[in-house]
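Consider the following assembly input.
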Amino acid sequence: MQTINTTDIQGVLTTHLLQVLDTMFSVKAVPLGSAVPNEEAERVSGSVGFGGDAIAGVVYVHLPATFAGVLAACILGTEPESLSEAEVNDVVGEIANMLTGGLKSWLCDVSLPCAVSIPVVIRGSSFAIESPPEVERLRLGFSAGVNHFSVEVHVKFQ
Amino acid sequence: MPTKILTVDDSRTIRLIVTRAFGAYDCAVCQAGNGEEGLAVAAKEKPDLILLDVTMPVMDGVTMLAKLKEDPELKAIPVIMLTAESGQGNILQIARIGVHDYLVKPFKQEQLIEKVSRIIPLVKKAPAISTA
C-alpha cells in the first residue's frame, strides 16, 4: 500500500475538476490553490462520500447558485431561467459524483480501494461545513471567467 | 422500427444527456432511475442495448447486471457501463461481470455514439423536407 497525503489528493481533485468542466461543459477553469472565494452568496453544494479500510472522507463542490444555473443550462441545452432548483441540483450532484469517481479511481490505483456514496446536494448561503479535529480538511479555489467557486475535501486516514 | 436504448442512471442529468445524444438517430431512448426500475423497463421494452450506471440507490448497476444475466430473455442484451470510476480495479471488476464495454464520466457525446455504434447499428434520421 502506498502512502498518500492531502497534497496528492489536491492534485487529483484539481486535475479531475478541470477535466469534468472542460469535457461536459466546455468551461475552462483556472485553479487558484488555497485562495478560496468569499462564499456568502447563495450557493449550491454537491457532496459525495468515499470510504474504505484505510481512508474515508467527503468531497464537496461549492458553486454560486447563478453559476450552477449557467452550467446546468449549458449541459441540458436550455436557458438558466427555465430550470427548476431540482434540475440544477441534479447537475451539481453529478459534478460531485464525477469528481469523486475520479478520486476513487486514483485511490484504487494506489491500492486504497474504497466505495462512493450517491450524491447529496445542499443549497443556502453563509454556511460552513465542520468536521471533527482528526479529519484533515482541504479547500481549493477555482475561477472560470467572472465566476469563483471551490472544492472542499474532508479526509481521514484510518 | 427504431433502435431501442435503455439508460439506467440515478442522475436525471445523465439520462437527459444520453437522450439528447441519440436525438439525431433513429433511436427510442427509454429511462430508469435505478437497477430495479431498469430490470422492469428492460423486461417490458426489450432494448437493443443498455447504458448502465454503477453507483445507484435501491439497486446498483452491478447487481442489476447480475440479475440481467440470470434472465434467459434479457441476458443477451449488450450492456455498456457508464461510470465515474475508472481505476484498474474498477475496470477489472466491470470486465469480470460481462459487460460489452465501458465509458468513463466525464465523456463527450461523440465518444458515447462511437461506443454504442460499435455494438449496434445507428441510423441517422432522414432530414426533414420542407414543402414551403
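The longest helix of chain B spans residues 35-45. Ask yourself how this observation constrains the way the partners meet.
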